[in-house]
Structures are given as C-alpha cells and as structure tokens.
Structure to design on (810 residues):
C-alpha cells in the first residue's frame, strides 16, 4: 500500500513567539504510510509544529503543505482527512462520551446515526460501553484519553497527529494502540507521533525526527540514528544528541541537597 | 442520545439564507450550537450561587425566574416622575448592570473557551462559522436573559405608556445588548493584550463576586431606596452625562416621548445609537486578534515576581505559638487570597457584613440626622460582621481544589487541631481584621473617637466567638478539603443559628454600657474569656480527624 506520495511537507517552517525563535527553518517531507516519531526535549517546538499543521497557529513563516495543499490559502478541506489527539485531554466535560463523539463525528461530516453506531462499536473495543452515556467530567484521565483517541479515528482519517496519545493509558490499552498504529501504517495511513516516551517511539516509528531548540538535529530510521550516535537505545541517542549527559551528576547533586536539608533540620 | 433539537435553532434556521450568504457553513453552525446549548443546560449559573441547587433539569432555564424577579425592580421606575431621561436612565443603569455582570460571570467561559480552539479549530470547521456560532450562542442566551428580565417592564409599558414608548424600549434594549456583548469582548481583548490569562481569570472572578454581592445587596438597597430618592428633581445636563451609557438611552425617551430637543439630550441619543454600531464594527475587525490572544489562556502564566510575604510572616509570628501552626496560618492565608472559588463563595458574605450596618444606618437617616445618630448606640450594628463569622468559618472547610487535601492525610501532623487554630487565626488577622478596621474608621467618623472602646469590645467578641463557633461546628474534616458541592447541603442553617449567638454579645455589650467604665470591665472579661476558650478549645481534646 505504501507509495512515495508526500502527505506532509514543511519548508523552512519558522515561528517567532515574542522575540523567541521557537522553530527555525524546519524542513520535513513525510510520505504516505510513514510513522514519524517526533521527539525533542521540553520546549523544543514539537507541539508548536503540530499546532501549525492543524491550523491552530497562523503567524508562522515558511510553507506547510498537507496532501499537496498549502494550508495558508484558507481552504480547510484537508482537515477532513486529519485526526488529532491533543496533548492535554481537553473535552467538553458536560457532554457524555457518546454526545461528544457524535458531535465530533458530525463536524467531520458523518451522519449522526452512523457516527453513533460507529462510536458505540469503537467504545466497546475500549471497554467503555457501560459508561458511554456518562458525562466526561466523571471520567478518569485514561478513560478521557480513550475517548479522544476514538474521536480522532471515527472518520477514518488518512493522517493522524498524536501528541502524547498514551498518557494515562494502562498497559493493555497501550498495546492495543501500538498494534493499531502499526496496522494503520501498513494500510497506508500516515502517523505523526509526538512523544517523550522513548521506548514507545523506538518501537512504533519507522522514522524518527529529533528537534532541539526549534531545529531538526537528526532525521532517520532508528538504525540510522544508532549508527550516527553509537548508542544502543533511543534514550541514549536522545541524551547524546540533545547534549544532556550529566544526568547522573545532577541526580547526585539533588540527593546531596535533599540530605543536607535533613542535616539542617 | 440526549442532545435534542432546540427551538432557538429552529428560529435561527429562518435566517439560513442570510447566514449562507455571509459564507457561513450552516450545517456545521447548527452542530456546534446544538452542542453548546446542551452544555449550557448543564451548567449552574452564577446567579444561583447562593442557593441550593439540585443538579437535575436545565439550570439555565430555572435561573430565568430570578431575572424575571429583577424585572419587577425595574418596573416602578417607569412611573416615578416625568423626567424620562432620569427614570429611564436609572432603568437602563440596572439593565446594563445585570446584563453585563451576567455576561461576564456566566458567558466569559463562552468567549474564552480554549477548548473551542483545540477541539473545533482542528476540525473541518472554518473560523468564520466557529465565530458566528460563538456570537449566536451568546445572543441566544442574552435574548433569554433580557427577555425574562424585561418581559414585565415591556408589558407594563405597552399597556400604560403606549406603542411608541414600547417600540423605543425594544430598540434601546437591542442596542444595549449589542453594547454589552461587544464592550465585554473588547475589554477582554485589552486585558489579554496587556496581561496574561491568569490575570484575566482573576478579573472575571472579581466580576462574579460583584454579581453575587450585587444580587444579595442590590435588592436590599433598591427596595429601601425607593422612598429616599427624590424623583421630582429637575434634570440639568452636564457634559459628563455623555459618558454614561444609561443616560444615552434615557435621552432617547426624553427626546422622542417628551419631545425635548435640547443639545445634551440629542447628543446623548445619537451616542446611544452610534456607539453600539461602531463597537460592533470594531469588534468584527478585531475578532481575529481576539482569537489569537486567546492563546495566552492556553499558555503557562508569565513568571511573576515572587512576592515576599513579609506581612503574612509577621502576623504568623505574632499570633501563632508553634512552627507547625505558622505553616497552616500561611497556607490558609494564601488559600483565602488566591482561591477563586473560595473567594466567590465567601467574599459576598463578607460584603454583607460590611454593607448591612450601613443599610441600617441609612434607614435611620430618614428619621434622624447623622449627628443625632452619632450620639446613639447604632454602632452596635457593627456586630453584623460578627454575625457572619460562623458562615465564613464553616466555608473554610471547603475549596475548589479540595482534591489537594490528601496532603493533610499524608503529612505527619502531630496535633491536627493546630491546623484549624492556624487557619482560624489566619481568618481573624487577614480577613476579619482588615474588614473590621475599615468599618471602624467609618464608625469613628460617625460616632467620634469615644466609640473606640466599644469597637475593641466588638473585635474581642469576634475573637471569642470564632473559638466558640469552632467548638460547636462539625470537626470531621481539615480546612479546604471538601467540595463546595456539599457546602450548601450541610451546616448552613446550623451556622445561621450559631450566628444568632451574636445577640448574646450585643446584650452583654448593652448591659456593660449601662455602667460608667462598664465597657472596660467587659473588655477585660472578654480578654480573659478569649484566652481561656482558645487555650482549651485547641487542646488535644478537640481533635480533627
């Protein structure tokens, strides 16, 4: 199913926020069927990149093309082919899970009845059938996350933006998602996966992009990055490429301050 | 699926061709509005703040009855005197106050909903449609609120004042609604431009408090002020009247009904029409900037300078005996100052404590002069502040962030009663004392410095009473560890009854004043009693769990 068709293209993407350069000439071409692991330290500009591609931030410089369409031209039809799981589980808490899903389904152009039937089936797979008519305000973090994931898939999108999608999920649900992402990519869906959890990114991505202070410092398969850094794990590669190698010393200093405080008391 | 079809959406469907012409995606608009209206029905409006609310049914529709009651307040102004600029000016003053505070208190969340940004703007819905849904959503709400507020005044004006008057009333109300919505949004735009989202949330919180205070006290003041306001005074124009929107609308009546074409009246009428229209145009122009600045609400608040809490530390050292007690003093002070939900519940009660003594004095002013009052014992009305102590102390157990209460269970607290003694001392020194001092200054102005010993006795009575309240209340939880959801259900009435004990203090005070130097003996007795009570109450015997 995989083709060489570019689903997502970023050209010289630059973003300045209050005088601070958040993204600096980011260039990226993502092909159909790829799972991009988009990683970087806190404040590297990962979420900003995702928000720009989703049309949440407009005052950027450079070009963003999704499905061959420049998103700055005002045509939002490309959004029908996108699914999005935000970093924070922001939902309309006063709605029930089913109401929320039908609402988002309708926004993507699904018929209400069809959206309802589909949502019910999907929620069943997450064992949420019994609570689907309960208000989201009563849901745990993991349950809300499952609803968000369901809402991002309801309209069968071609491109998925996932920002820390596994946060709050139990091990079993995580396995379902990981397996599902792999199968979706096999079918030609493209997945843009932004996360801090290195071992998950390592396992599911077929391409990893590392962003540091708004710049792409590494871009390749896990094996290519291993070769580049001579490190065995993605965590090791991440530490080396972000220049963070003194974690042991910092931990020791932390403990020593902690125990000094004890001595004073 | 419980989401139903709404009549207001059916009304909007009449405008479908117009909306389509404006480039709005009608289907998406309806989907968004339906969801918004469903959620509205599940929120508790701020105007219900002070009452027990069952969670069933559409809370919004139920709140409309309260607006209808306010409508009753406006109606008499239609008939008082023949100075339309004045009487309609007052009516529109009340209307603008109620609509704008309601708008800010309950519909700020609509204007500032950042979930909209993440949920709607990531979907195939264009900004024009999302913004149209936002405005229509607010308009529907304002239509209901102003409809129930003004139904009675409009009906009365139709039967008593004629069709022209009523039509003018309706047009002016429409302009007022536009003005209120747009000015609120522009105000937010300015605030967001210069401050961060946290500051805006604080401002909204203060407006919510103002609305609660306004609804509690406004009734008392307005109901009592009917016969002291003289409506027969003749209106003379001053240039600054042009700065008061209610008088603009008063002017339109004066001009068209009373045929008064003086320059001030004509200018006022023109402003009443022109300003809302210009404001709407400005708003449409600035809407994209508004959407962009909403990002600030999503971001982390700007770093603020860490304020050195020197005064708190000083007061803690002054009033607390142990290090542990000082910790809870500081914690309680910060919670009382910073927690928005706590302030929303407690500040209106405090405001009652401040305003009620003056309402009583104001009533007395109708019969006597201020100088005459100054020689009497009306300073005893300051005891009203002590009357509310039980309610506030009761509220100290609740918090919007009650889930953080696990820390009390997890931390090794040797003497749990210390938690409450620190909290109550914080209440007395950082909340009760400033309000009391404020009242005292005014009371000294009215009753001369000879009232100082009496005020001291009232304050000491407050200190003693606080310990007594703690003794009598349920001590089954730590401060700030229970949800406000349960605050109305338990103990409110009990706290009211305990509040009546204030009458004992008033009686003792009056009795002491019958003797020369009696007040000083009373003060000495209160000092001893407070010392003993605080000491015994906060020994291990009364342990919180």
């Amino acid at each position: 199913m995989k083709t060489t068709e570019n689903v997502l293209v970023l050209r010289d993407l630059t973003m300045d926020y209050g005088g601070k350069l958040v993204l600096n000439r980011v260039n990226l071409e993502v092909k159909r069927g790829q799972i991009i692991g988009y990683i970087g330290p806190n404040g590297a500009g990962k979420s900003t990149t995702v928000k720009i591609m989703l049309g949440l931030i407009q005052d950027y410089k450079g070009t963003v093309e999704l499905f061959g369409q420049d998103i700055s031209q005002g045509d939002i039809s490309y959004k029908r082919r996108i699914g999005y799981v935000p970093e924070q589980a922001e939902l309309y808490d006063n709605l029930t899970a089913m109401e929320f899903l039908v609402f988002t389904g309708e926004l993507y152009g699904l018929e209400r009845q069809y959206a309802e039937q589909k949502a019910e089936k999907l929620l069943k797979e997450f064992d949420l059938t019994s609570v689907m008519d309960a208000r989201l305000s009563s849901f745990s973090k993991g349950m809300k996350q499952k609803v968000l994931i369901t809402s991002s898939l309801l309209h069968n999108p071609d491109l998925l933006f996932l920002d820390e999608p596994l946060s709050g999920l139990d091990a079993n649900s995580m396995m379902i998602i990981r397996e599902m992402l792999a199968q979706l990519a096999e079918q030609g869906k493209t997945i843009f996966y932004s996360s801090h959890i290195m071992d998950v990114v390592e396992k599911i991505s077929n391409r990893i992009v590392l962003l540091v202070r708004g710049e792409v410092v590494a871009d390749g398969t896990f094996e290519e990055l291993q070769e580049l850094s001579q490190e065995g794990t993605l965590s090791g590669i991440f530490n080396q490429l972000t220049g963070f190698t003194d974690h042991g010393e910092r931990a020791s200093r932390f403990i020593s301050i902690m125990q000094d405080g004890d001595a004073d008391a | 699926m419980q989401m139903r079809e709404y009549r207001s959406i059916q009304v909007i469907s009449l405008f479908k061709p117009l909306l389509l012409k404006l480039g709005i995606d009608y289907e998406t608009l309806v989907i968004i509005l339906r969801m918004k209206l469903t959620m509205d029905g599940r929120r508790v409006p701020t105007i219900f703040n002070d009452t027990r609310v069952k969670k069933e049914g559409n809370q919004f529709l139920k709140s409309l009855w309260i607006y209808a009651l306010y409508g009753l307040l406006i109606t008499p102004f239609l008939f008082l005197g023949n100075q339309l600029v004045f009487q309609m000016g007052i009516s529109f003053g009340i209307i603008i106050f109620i609509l704008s505070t309601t708008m800010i208190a309950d519909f700020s969340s609509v204007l500032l909903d950042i979930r909209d940004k993440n949920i709607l703007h990531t979907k195939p819905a264009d900004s024009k449609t999302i913004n149209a849904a936002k405005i229509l959503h607010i308009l529907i709400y304002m239509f209901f609120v102003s409809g129930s507020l003004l139904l009675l005044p409009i009906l009365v004006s139709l039967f008593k004042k004629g069709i022209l008057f009523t039509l003018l009333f309706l047009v002016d109300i429409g302009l007022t609604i536009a003005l209120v919505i747009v000015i609120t949004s522009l105000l937010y735009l300015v605030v967001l431009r210069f401050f961060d989202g946290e500051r805006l949330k604080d401002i909204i919180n203060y407006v919510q408090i103002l609305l609660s205070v306004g609804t509690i006290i406004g009734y008392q003041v307005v109901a009592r002020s009917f016969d002291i306001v003289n409506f027969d005074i003749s209106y003379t124009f001053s240039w600054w009247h042009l700065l008061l929107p209610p008088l603009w609308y008063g002017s339109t009546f004066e001009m068209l009904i009373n045929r008064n074409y003086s320059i001030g009246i004509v200018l006022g009428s023109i402003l009443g029409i022109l300003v809302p229209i210009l404001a709407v145009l400005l708003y449409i122009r600035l809407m994209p900037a508004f959407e962009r600045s909403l990002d600030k609400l999503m971001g982390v608040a700007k770093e603020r300078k860490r304020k050195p809490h020197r005064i708190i530390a000083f007061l803690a050292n002054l009033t607390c005996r142990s290090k542990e007690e000082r910790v809870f003093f500081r914690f309680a002070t910060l919670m009382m100052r910073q927690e928005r939900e706590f302030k929303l519940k407690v500040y209106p009660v405090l405001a009652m404590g401040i305003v009620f003594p003056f309402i009583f004095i104001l009533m007395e002013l109708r019969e006597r002069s201020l100088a005459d009052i100054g020689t009497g014992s009306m300073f005893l009305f300051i005891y009203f502040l002590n009357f509310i102590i039980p309610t506030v102390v009761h509220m100290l157990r609740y918090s919007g962030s009650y889930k953080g209460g696990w820390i009390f269970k997890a931390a090794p607290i040797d003497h749990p009663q210390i938690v409450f003694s620190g909290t109550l001392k914080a209440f007395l020194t950082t909340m009760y004392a400033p309000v009391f001092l404020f009242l005292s200054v005014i009371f000294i102005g009215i009753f001369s410095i000879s009232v100082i010993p009496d005020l001291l006795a009232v304050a000491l009575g407050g200190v003693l009473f606080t310990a007594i309240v703690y003794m009598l209340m349920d001590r089954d939880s730590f401060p700030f560890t229970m949800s406000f959801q349960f605050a109305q259900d338990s103990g409110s009435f009990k706290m009211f009854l305990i509040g009546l004990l204030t009458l004992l203090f008033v009686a003792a005070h009056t009795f002491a004043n019958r003797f020369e130097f009696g007040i000083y003996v009373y003060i000495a007795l209160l000092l001893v009693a407070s010392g003993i009570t605080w000491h015994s109450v906060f020994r291990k015997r009364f342990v919180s769990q």
Remarks:
- Chain A is about 40% helix and 25% strand.
- Residues 247-264 of chain A form the longest helix (18 residues).
- Chain A touches chain B at residues 54-59, 74, 76-77, 79-80, 82, 84, 86, 88, 90-92, 94-96, 98-99, 102-104, 106-109, 112, 116, 133, 135 (CB under 8 Å).
